[in-house]
Amino acid sequence: MNEGSLERRYRRLLAWYPQPYRSEQEEEILAVLMAGAERGQRRPRLAEAADVIKSAVGMRLWPARSGPEQRDLADGLAVFSLVAPLFLLAVDVLQVALPYRLPGAPFLPPVLAHREIGGMSLLRVHFFDIAVGCQVIIAVIVLLGLRWLALVAIPGSVVFWAASSWWIPWMPYPLQLITAGVYLLEMAALLASPGPRRGRGLVTWRHAVVLLLAAGAVQGFALWYAATARRIWAQLPNPSVRVYLGVGVALAVAAVVLAVVLRLNRYFLLVFAAACYPYAVQLGFSAFRQDPLGRPTPAYLLVLFLPPVLFALGIVFTAAARLRARAPAKPASPA
After folding, report:
1. What was the pLDDT predicted at 330?
2. Which of 118, 167, 219, 300 could, after both became Cys, cross-link 94 (CB 3.0–4.6 A)?
3. What domain range is 229 assigned to?
4. Does residue 66 sit within a domain?
5. Where residue 232 falls among pLDDT bands split at 50, 70, 90?
6. Has residue 327 been placed in a domain?
7. Which residues, other chains included, contact 213 with Cβ-Cβ below 8 Å and sequence gap of 6+?
């Protein structure tokens, strides 16, 4: 048995574990693995590798309860569960306050010339006011700390937004995506964290500033999408289109930089990024003059929502596994 080569491979495998754990337990685990190796074995067995990776990934996602990593994760989810509905409300307010108006052109019919996309006209759309009303109700429920009531209200709101997207005119499709993505991770955070009541004690002005910048970036990208989503509109001589894109990029970069400088909870930022993933993917397709969201295929919907769904399921399953591990063992029955 080439012990030197096998030991190096075992050490690369153990690198999956967090550094604090490796510094304390690596040599002991390595000794056990080497003692159980067979004669002539050159690399870790498949079962060993799978067991180590499963344990290491679970340790990184949901560390020991008493450790600081565990508290950071629980606190990050609690903060997200509180501020995510408020972020969606900020996005809706900007959608009404900052509309996009089609420029006039000779080949446009009068009904489309200078047509407003978004803006105050949305308040006269019946389905839009109901959808925003649902978001206001969910935000109030979360602020009151009613976790289980929010878990019931959120699916109903998402279904309504999906159904009403065909009835809300001049509404950029990506806003539906960010609503679905945020609510998907919101439900996972409500299930797997101490809840919004804990989040109320953790939220500061720093979270408000970063989320307002992020909401501004969403609106900038939404205006750019509205100006370029239709081919006939994209042909219009309108230099403001690039301005919208530049504003969106600048605000998004500012939000990321400020979140790092202000040292916001990294788990909160990770969950927030997962919630924005479908929105970012759609904008990426739009940048190449592609708009598959108009008639989405099952494959495209899978690309949009499979990563955040798996992320949300991972949060919930690891939380459930930790709860089972902390449950006291039943005493053995007498013989």
Report:
1. 46
2. 219
3. 73-313
4. no
5. very low
6. no
7. 251, 252, 254, 255, 258
- pTM given for the model: 0.71
Residues 28, 144, single domain; the answer is: no
DSSP-derived 3-state class of residue 116: strand
Phi and psi for 334 in degrees, rounded to 5? -65, 150
On whether the CB atoms of residues 125 and 168 are closer than 8 A, the answer is yes
Share of the chain above pLDDT 70, in %: 72
Q: Are residues 116 and 10 in the same domain?
A: no
Q: Is 55 a member of any domain?
A: no
Q: Whole-angstrom Cα distance, residue 49 to residue 26?
A: 15
- In the chain, how many domains are there? 2
Residue 320 lies in a domain: no
Angle between helices 3-14 and 46-61 (to 10 degrees): 30
113, with CB counted inside 10 A (0-12, 13-18, 19+), is: middle
> How much is the pLDDT for 334?
46
The angle at the Cα of 236, spanning 233 to 240, to the nearest 5 degrees, equals 95
Instruction: Quickly state the pLDDT bin for 3 (edges 50, 70, 90).
Output: low
Residues 161 and 303 reside in one and the same domain: yes
What 3-state class would DSSP assign to 295?
coil
pLDDT in tens, 285-320: 777 666 656 666 788 888 888 999 999 988 888 777
pLDDT (average), residues 216-231? 77
- Give start and end residues of each alpha helix (H) in 125-193: 126-143, 147-164, 173-192
Q: Is pLDDT of 227 > 80?
A: no
Torsion of CA 161, 164, 165, 167, to 10 degrees: -160
Name the more confident of 304 and 61.
304
Tens digits of per-residue pLDDT, 273-285? 999 999 888 888 7
Residue 287 and residue 240 share a domain: yes
Q: Are residues 93 and 182 in the same domain?
A: yes
Query: Which residues have C-beta within 8 Å of that of residue 186, sequence separation ≥ 6?
Result: 80, 81, 84, 85, 150, 154, 275
- Do residues 189 and 271 lie in contact, with contact meaning Cβ atoms separated by under 8 Å? yes
Residues 11 and 149 placed together within one structural domain of the fold: no
Q: Could you tell me if 283 and 166 lie in one domain?
A: yes
